[in-house]
Known about the structure:
Layout: H1 2-15, H2 23-27, H3 37-44, H4 57-73, H5 76-87, H6 95-107, H7 111-127, H8 134-147, H9 150-162, H10 169-183, H11 187-202, H12 212-226, H13 229-242, H14 248-260, H15 264-276, H16 283-296, H17 299-311, H18 318-331, H19 334-347, H20 358-368, H21 372-384, H22 391-403, H23 407-419, H24 426-438, H25 442-454, H26 461-473, H27 477-487, H28 497-509, H29 513-525, H30 532-544, H31 548-561, H32 574-587, H33 590-602, H34 609-620, H35 625-631, H36 633-646
Amino acid sequence: MRRRDLWLLSWRKFSSEPEIPSLYSFLQPSLFSPRRAVQVVEKDTLQSRGKPNSCSPAQQLNLEASLEQLLVNGNTDEAWKSFKILTNCSSFPSKPLTNSLIAHLSSTLDVHNLKRAYASVVFALEKNPSFLEFGSVKHLLESMRAANTSAPAFALVKCMLANRFFMPFEMWGSVLLDICRKNGSFSGFLSVFHETCRIALAEKMDFMKPDLAACNAALKYYCHEVESVTDAEKVVDIMSIFGIKPNESTFGSLAYLYALKGLNEKVSDIVDVADKLVISNKREIFHDLICGSIRFGDFGLLTDTILNALKGEEGFGPETYKEILTGFIQNGDYKSLSNLIIESQKVEPSSVAVEGSFGYGVISACISLGVPDKAHGILDELNAQGASIGLGVYIPILKVYCKEWRIAEAAQLVTEISDLGLVLDVEMYDALIESAMSCKDFQSAFSLFRDMKESRISELKGCYLTIMTGLTEHHRPELMAAFLDQVVEDPRIKVGTHDWNSIIHAFCKAGRMEDARRTFRRMIFLRFEPSGQTYLSLINGYTAQEKYFSVLLLWNDVKKNISGDGEKSFKLDASLIDAFLYALVKGGFFDASMQVVEKSLEMKIFVDKWRYKQAFMERHKKLRISKLRKRNTKKMEALIAFKNWAGLSS
Length: 650
């Protein structure tokens, strides 16, 4: 009892503290400058310096009726003037009218009107507290919370307590707590908290005792901000006196403080009590205990705490993993962290999924903190110690490398994964290869695809197309040809003529006709049948370089592959007829040109003679039949036949 009396004396010190200085600024309307603040307060103050004016009962009734009507009409300023006149009378306005005015002023959420509501309540508290209703005061406090005006809210509660206007704590305690949380400071709450505790004990008012949330807020402040064991334990004693049952937040704050101070015996007591009270969710307790251990630098306690939590199947949240990782990074001891992960695998239940494991949480924390290289280093350390690592632990690192286009490092990590006998899924490979192609890291893309092949994944076609499309877009036909050579015999890809056509077309477009010819020969050697598109690309490429003899050789090759009806290997279409005929006319190969014409007639393909007449005039305008007659009779006959067909005969 003696100790309790000492605490009561200390609580009285809290109640005698001066009002919060910023209260004055709250009473000042926002449209006035600070130098005029005194005048404004005097204008709106309900206290009269002189003697109060006397009003007859009839006058008071008329004023109250007028005030009531003004409130109904929403005329706030005139209602306030009427209320001030009433307060200057010898008798106080009626209780319903006073509370109606306070409720009306509080509902506007205007700082100037909240000042008026505050002044009204304080005036009533000092003159006649019985005129106030709990609901009106609660409404005002809630409006102050919405307006984030902390100073007047605390001043109002202190005025309530000083004038023995005892509202149940549940009606105003949570409001003050919310205001403290918004402003990030609980120091102002402590004086009110201790004064309330003193009143609840001295007056034996059970409804005035603080609730669990208020006690935990005060305890957290003493544990995390003040870091005072004495003050924290006083709050615990208060909870014991009032019969307030602690929860995980209570034990968490104490665990943090005891770990921070190196009081390991008290840490053990806290954990034991939490077990006896059957606290179902101990995640918050372990989080605070871990944070305290790290700050104190007791990595032995930290390790024991983590392993005990895992034994009890208590997982950790992302913030806890970040604290753990940050602690080990600052300590520079990756080996100990790797050892801890290995030990965690021994105590974690077999039912825990990879994504719920301690190792996965640490790696994910590395990703969240933007240090994927640290995660890679931890995995290297684990591999060096022969630890068993699931594939899921690698996935977050690969995703970050993919997102940041660090493809070379991703490819290296994939190789390490493959060496461990682990197999990535097709989607992961495709995402990595697509990133590699986007940043033109073709060698990494090939390396990833090679790992994919060696992993015996059945579905390779998608990644193959990703690489071929990327190489086409970046105009790298030589890499396309080399890549196709590597995969052409793989039955999982099923290479077709169109794949060769893509490479040939790319070479022709780039003017690299010798490479196009080699690819064409390679295609034939591997028994892939050329299509019309194959020849069309080659013809256009040769024509662009005026290599018409090469087109003639192609025509001789085509003649072998088509029958009279054009259905042996492929059909001669209009575009192919046009390309051949134009190039052969330009090259002066009129015999072959007439062969093409004959094929077009057989297949009933329309040919625009004007186009080839123009080509002839551009290239062979000065060619004379008389000169050809002396040199080559066959060529002369072909020329005459072409001129007759094209309508060029004189």
